[in-house]
Amino acid sequence: MLRAGRDRRRWKTAASKRAALAVLVSLSIFGPAARAEERLTLRVSPRVAFAPADLVVRATIAADKENRAIEIVADSGDFFRSSEIQLDGDQAPKTMYSEFRSVPSGIYVVRAVLKGSRGQELAAREVHFQVVATGLR
């Protein structure tokens, strides 16, 4: 009888762990990009790279007549690079790409700011990632 109680608790614990894992996986797969109400989503690939790295930043923008520009910044404290792309309101492409080449090692914050017709911030997102030093010079 005692063993049956332990087995039942073990099964409940394993089942709750599986349920928690399923929630985490679905959040990572269907996370920010799946929420239709978001004006701006941001992805950087690869999330971890070896220096010098070539990074691709993908910003997905909801169509809106107010969209006039998107600014994308990569900053580690020791390295800074930015790009601003003009947008034509709701006629602009939904997905914008920006490449940063030969990025040195460091921990980075990539920030995207969607700007309106008067330069005001309409939406902003940021992603953190790391470029690892290879040890070779």
Q: What descriptors fit this protein?
A:
20% helix, 8 strands, alpha+beta, 137 residues, 5-stranded mixed β-sheet, 3-stranded antiparallel β-sheet, elongated
Protein model, in words:
- The chain is an alpha+beta fold.
- The protein has one helix and eight strands.
- Helix content is 20%, strand content 46%.
- The strands form two sheets. It has a five-stranded mixed β-sheet, with no helix packed on it.
- A hairpin with a 5-residue loop joins strand 7 and strand 8.
- The radius of gyration is 21 Å and the shape is elongated.
Main sheet characteristics: 5 strands, mixed
CATH level 3 topology of the largest domain: Immunoglobulin-like
Portion of residues in helices?
A: 10-25%
The run of helices and strands is HEEEEEEEE
Strands ordered across the widest β-sheet: 2-8-7-4-5
Mean pLDDT across residues: 82
Number of domains: 2
The CATH class label of the largest domain is Mainly Beta
Radius of gyration: 21 Å
For the termini, the CA-CA separation is: 66 Å
Structure annotation, total helices: 1
Tell me the fraction of residues in β-strands, as a range: over 45%
**CATH superfamily assignment of the largest domain?**
SOR catalytic domain
* CATH level-two architecture of the largest domain: Sandwich
Oligomer type = single chain
The unreliable regions are: 19-36
Q: Which structural class should the secondary elements be placed in? A: alpha+beta
Overall, the morphology is: elongated
Q: How many runs of DSSP E, i.e. beta strands?
A: 8
